[in-house]
Amino acid sequence: MDQEFFLAPELPVIVIGGSGVDLIGRLEKELVPGTKNPAKIRTSYGGVARNIAENLSRLGQRTILLTAVGEDYAGKQLLAQSVQAGVDISRVRTTSDHPTGTYLGILDEKGTLQFALDDINATKSLTPDYIRSHADLFKQASLVFIDANLPAKTLRTIFSQARRARIPVCADPTSTSLAKHLEPFLDRLSLITPNGDEAGVLCGLTIENNQPQDAIEAAKCLVSKGVGIVLVSLAEFGVVYATSETSGYVPAIRTSVVDPTGAGDALNATVIYALLHQIPLDDAVRLGVTAASITLRHRGTVVDDLSLELLYDQLVI
Q: Which of 93, 112, 207, 233 has the most other CB atoms within 10 Å of its CB?
């Protein structure tokens, strides 16, 4: 059964990984190197784990965030905003060793990401001892979601704690450079959510131009390595999914792109929420694609009024 891992929606989801400030610049015309370029620039709070936690919370899922922020104004504001969104931040670590994380993304005039930089060294504070000190949370949770920003020893500790508590682990590889961090744990993942490039890295395959058929082969490859459910996001081409019993493809919704930042996180959080509430996988993916589409049209990382009602109201696929 595809959703045999997701059985306790009344219990909180533990979300572990990076958080920080997003600084996004969208060019008004073609980039001219070596000089100033007119652009629209915005800031918001982001980080894969933090985005997942906020999206889940706005959908109505109890969510506990385990992350690290610096002893600075940005960290205080990030936590205050997360509380406002309904996220439990009582176990977040504050560190004096590193500033709160920062992500810098540059978009072209069409809203396509051209390059990105990040400084998420604060996640080094998420040590194995920090995870073990919160072993009680694992015993009272429905599942754990992680991003691959975490140190290798911390990842091992998370999987160990989840196994002892007999709860599923879901993961986002986060980037092609970090995807390999998850390779030793593939057979212990109930859900993984790579994009096409990350799936290719994990499977040793090339997904040409985000082609769905290539992505389905990569998804099936990851299932053969022990993953329960695989979602491969293909940007404007949609999402493919696979389990040991089924596979499928949901095309993207045609929409204008204001800002792509956070769209994948909205998709992943929505799918997790839907699976926890026993919505069939194909319907869960369609809801996730709808959440991504709404987020693409939003000038920010998370849609403030995200709800299941809003998703069903705009469900067009």
A: 233
Residue with the two structure tokens 């019993």: 245
Burial 193-212 (b: 16+ CB within 10 A, else e): bbbbbbbbbbbebebeebeb
Residue 121 covered by a domain? yes
Instruction: Tell me the per-residue pLDDT of 109-148, one tens digit each, with 9 for 90 and over.
Output: 888 889 899 899 999 999 999 999 999 999 999 999 999 9
Instruction: Kindly report the pTM of this predicted structure.
Output: 0.93
Q: List C-alpha distances in Å: 70 to 101, 120, 125, 147, 155.
A: 8, 10, 10, 19, 21
**Between β-strands 101-107 and 20-27, what pairing exists: parallel, antiparallel or unpaired?**
parallel
Query: How many CB atoms are located within 10 Å of the residue 214 CB?
Result: 20
Rg (C-alpha) for the chain, rounded Å, is: 18
Q: Give the pair of three-digit tokens for residue 77.
A: 């504001």
Q: Could you tell me the CA-to-CA distances from 188 to 28, 160, 192, 272 in Å, in that order?
A: 45, 10, 10, 17
Q: Per-residue pLDDT tens for 44-88?
A: 899 999 999 999 999 999 999 999 999 999 999 999 999 999 999
Q: What is the CATH number of the domain that holds 124?
A: 3.40.1190.20
Which domain does 136 fall in, by range? 13-167+253-314
DSSP 3-state of 171: strand
Question: What's the domain count of the chain?
Answer: 1
Specify if 194 maps to a domain: no
Q: Is residue 48 part of a domain?
A: yes
